[in-house]
Design a protein that fits this description.
This protein has 361 residues and is α+β, with helices and mostly antiparallel strands. It contains 9 helices and 13 strands. The strands form 3 sheets. The chain has a 5-stranded antiparallel sheet. Helix 1 links the parallel strand 1 and strand 2. The two termini are 34 Å apart.
């Protein structure tokens, strides 16, 4: 396979996706890396139909990488995730509207260009969580207890000042009472993994980041998010509030921290999506793009291995056991993806949530 990764400056030393790139190369796939924002890119030459089997984006919200990914999609190249799915979640205001419109448990959301405009919200709805609509990695997220605190400066390290996210849109949502622990659920092309970590709003609350059991309700919500937005590799931030789970953020291609053997799993998922296409086209209601241009003939052994992988995924989704391996390059010595420690589930588009952690299925 021939893949192109778009990696922005913030992630140049990050294990995800750099370790995935190394793993794919170790499996004898060709991986090119473009660094938007810190290097000259001859896009007329780099983006050509047939030049790569898929493009993969790891970028900050609002970064230049998304434009390049859209350019690749415009000539019929597969993108991971589907580029339209990425647009749907990068704008948190848009994501909140889409999610609530589909009945997902998302807080009421307000948008404004300046924080003082949130003073029009009834005081009974405070405290509010205020954050940039294009934010990422917890940047400039703050808890505003009362209307008179709306103009308080963002804590050191935040990228936005009182006037908003460098002039961008802000959103505000009523604070959901919780234990101070965030639940992050990752989806790796249909397999779900839950972890808990300290909330950025409660940094003093000591929480050891660890893998935790995934309940059927949280699994269902996470699976629905993938279906609604058309995402294959994504993460969902969920709070367990007094009225049940509440979705407070959605991220495409997250860090996958605490996912067992994350590098091998994500690498295998990228290859599968590169061959079979991301599902964003289905969720967005558009027609699948047709790739025009030359495409290398696949090695017969590689094709058979990919079919075996899909067969085993279907078997697990039907409630039977099986172990997935990454696509082979037809050469010896390629690493094998570890089997999933999670049991099968009957959630559509096979979703395989964890029934337990560390023992049993």
């Amino acid at each position: 396979m021939r893949l192109c990764f778009l990696v922005e400056e913030q992630y140049r030393h990050d294990g995800m996706p750099l370790e995935v790139i190394h793993q794919l190369r170790a499996w004898s796939h060709r991986v090119d890396v473009l660094w938007p924002g810190r290097s000259l890119i001859r896009i007329s030459e780099a983006i050509q139909a047939g030049s790569h089997d898929a493009w993969v984006l790891k970028t900050v919200s609002g970064g230049p990488g998304l434009t390049l990914l859209e350019a690749a999609a415009s000539v019929g190249l597969t993108t991971v995730n589907d580029v339209r799915a990425i647009r749907g979640v990068r704008d948190k205001a848009l994501a909140a509207v889409i999610a609530r419109g589909k009945g997902l448990p998302v807080p009421v959301t307000y948008a404004a260009a300046r924080p003082e405009e949130f003073a029009e919200i009834a005081e009974a709805e405070f405290p509010l969580v205020v954050k940039p609509a294009d934010g990422s990695s917890g940047r400039a997220v703050r808890l505003v207890v009362t209307p008179d605190r709306l103009l308080d400066p963002v804590e050191p390290g935040g990228a936005a000042g009182p006037d908003g996210a460098a002039g961008g849109l802000l959103i505000a949502q009523p604070y959901v009472p919780n234990s101070g622990t965030d639940l992050k659920v990752y989806s790796v092309a249909g397999e779900l993994y839950a972890t808990e970590r300290c909330s950025p709003l409660h940094p003093a609350h000591a929480v050891r980041e660890r893998q935790v059991p995934l309940t059927p309700e949280v699994a269902r919500i996470t699976a629905e998010i993938g279906d609604v937005f058309g995402l294959d590799l994504y993460g969902v931030d969920i709070l367990l509030g007094p009225d049940g789970p509440v979705v407070v953020d959605i991220n495409d291609f997250p860090s996958f921290r605490q996912v067992p053997d994350a590098v091998a799993r994500v690498s295998a998922a990228v290859l599968d999506l590169a061959r079979n296409g991301a599902r964003g086209r289905e969720a967005c209601g558009g027609e699948a793009s047709v790739r025009e241009g030359a495409q290398d003939t696949q090695d017969a052994q590689e094709m058979q291995d990919m079919q075996d992988l899909r067969d085993m995924q279907d078997t697990r989704a039907a409630g039977r056991t099986g172990a997935a391996a990454p696509p082979s390059t037809g050469q010896t010595g390629a690493a094998a993806a570890p089997p999933s420690p999670f049991g099968a589930s009957s959630v559509p588009r096979p979703i395989r949530p964890a029934a337990s952690i560390g023992g049993g299925r």
